[in-house]
């Protein structure tokens, strides 16, 4: 069985969740890790957490653990 993910005007077809996650997860713009779960978005840029966003000069992001 397959399922569709509709994102940003495109339709993606997958046969397992792990494939969908691998293909659709954003990439941290600082450390290049795939963001699965919590991440932060600042002005259209994605980071895995506050540390990476601050390393790229972004301000006002705080990790709440």
Automatic annotation (TrEMBL):
Top-level lineage group: Bacteria
Protein name: Prokaryotic metallothionein
Source organism (scientific name): Streptomyces lannensis
């Amino acid at each position: 069985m397959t399922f569709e993910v509709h994102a940003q005007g495109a339709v993606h077809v997958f046969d397992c969740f792990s494939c969908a996650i691998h293909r659709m997860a954003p990439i941290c713009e600082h450390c290049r890790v795939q963001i699965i779960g919590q991440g932060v978005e600042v002005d259209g840029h994605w980071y895995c957490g506050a540390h990476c966003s601050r390393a790229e000069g972004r301000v006002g992001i705080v990790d709440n653990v």
